[in-house]
What we know:
By secondary structure, the chain is of the alpha/beta class. The chain has 8 helices and 8 strands, in the order E-H-H-E-E-H-E-H-E-H-E-H-E-H-E-H. It has a 5-stranded parallel beta sheet with strand order 5-4-6-7-8, sandwiched between helices. Strands 1-3-2 form a 3-stranded antiparallel beta sheet. Helix 1 crosses helix 2 and helix 3 crosses helix 5. The chain is elongated. It starts with 12 loop residues before the first strand and ends with a helix.
Amino acid sequence: MDQNTLSAETSDYVTPAQAGRLLGVSKRTIHNWMMRGLFKAWQTEGGHYHIARTSINAILSKREAALAGQSTHKPTGKMSLLIVEDDEVLLSSYVEVFKNWQLPIDILTADNGFDGLILAGYHKPDMLLADLMTPLMDGFQMIRSIRRNSRLHHCSIVVITSLTAEKIAERGGLDANIPILHKPISFGQLRSIVEQQLDRS
Length: 201
């Protein structure tokens, strides 16, 4: 079990602030997840929110499983690439294309923004290829969290999305230095970006 998992001796609930500290996300993100039904939560008569301890432990266990599933990844001298995409078919396509290119790249994958953020913090990839509309934590939140992490300043980010420029702006936008490729993407353009990153590595 993850070392941050709440023990049986603690209360049956945590506050949003406590949940945020345990999961490594902001209190605002916790509230968003509550509104989407990710946690079993309730409001007290005094207006305070409580989140079931079992809900937090379930998320921590999922995080542990995500890390364990790719913990054999070791530095190999290759560029490390993390792909975050919730469409299983599309994710498999990306992996297959990268393998066919036979470039010196180690590939990690996640199907939601939360696991993507955890894997990024654990493996510190050289490059992130991210969808913006992903479960648990969207790509906007994931990217902003990565940008705030000083250990990940080296990570080059590329966004692949079906959102229009207007929709992206409505969600707060992205850093100007983040390339945005719109679906369906040009794999030739993607390869050019990846090869530029390889040249810098």
